[in-house]
Specification:
Elements: H1 4-20, E1 30-35, E2 39-42, E3 58-61, E4 66-68, H2 77-86, E5 92-96, H3 99-106, H4 117-123, E6 128-129, H5 137-147, E7 152-155, E8 159-164, H6 167-190, H7 198-212
Parallel strand pairs: 6-7
Antiparallel strand pairs: 1-2, 1-5, 2-3, 3-4, 5-8, 7-8
This protein binds zinc ion.
Length: about 230
């Protein structure tokens, strides 16, 4: 079991990666890890995720009360607490505003087409939650219908949240969502899509249970007719 210091270093490292890849701008985004004893290690508000130090991080309890840290906790802590409460298997959460996936979220479009086999296998589909004002309980409420069944959610007119059993897995899901959004965008530019057939999705489902076991939550997308943009 890594020490708290190791987890702090890990959050700093993945925060820097979010910033380097332009998944966040200015002070955007937040990351957290569930520690022993029902405590959450989380990023503070008003700090660039590209320039954090381990000492900037704060620890809160499951009610969001600050237990340690000099800085104030992120205003989006309610979203993290909801996910930890609903998903005992989740130990880390990443929230960012990657431009292409956030573009889909701002266009009111979910990423639910089965277009890429590895995305179907790893994440299923990525639903779109309705808009909720950041920093309020409304934001967590908009995510609630999806948290149990998906590991990555688009947040309308806002960004993306991903989570997993480790911070590495939560972060990798964020990269996958943005990469998939870029691919989906190209299919829209090309004016057509060729979704995977039902039989192929079923084979991916079998492969997924083999590789990931029952741990993975995400629902599979349903095959749809090819999209033709006129
Ligand atoms: Zn945000």
């Amino acid at each position: 079991m890594p020490t708290e210091r190791k987890y702090k270093e890990e959050i700093v490292r993945y925060g820097r990666m979010l910033h380097e890849r332009c998944f966040v701008a200015a002070m955007d985004g937040n990351l957290s890890v569930r520690l022993k004893g029902d405590r959450i290690l989380v990023t503070p508000t008003c700090v660039s995720k590209g320039a954090m130090r381990p000492g900037d991080l704060v620890i809160v309890d499951v009610e969001g009360r600050q237990l340690s840290g000099r800085r104030n906790v992120t205003s989006e802590i309610g979203m993290h607490l909801l996910i930890y409460r609903m998903r005992p298997d989740v130990a880390a959460i990443v929230h960012a505003h990657p431009p292409t996936a956030t573009g889909f979220a701002a266009a009111g479009m979910a990423l639910t087409e089965p277009l890429v086999c590895e995305v179907v296998m790893g994440l299923g589909c990525i639903p779109l939650a309705r808009y909720g004002t950041p920093g309020t309980s409304e934001l967590a409420q908009t995510l609630e219908p999806y948290v149990a069944d998906y590991d990555a959610i688009l947040m309308s007119n806002h960004g993306v949240v991903t989570y997993g059993d480790t911070l590495e897995h939560a972060y990798m899901k964020m990269e996958t969502v943005e990469h998939f959004a870029q691919i989906a965008l190209v299919t829209h530019l090309l004016g057509r899509q060729q979704p995977l057939e039902k039989v192929d999705i079923e084979k991916l489902l079998t492969a997924r249970s083999k590789y990931f076991g029952a741990k993975i939550a995400a629902a599979m997308p349903l095959p749809r007719a090819p999209l033709k943009v006129s």
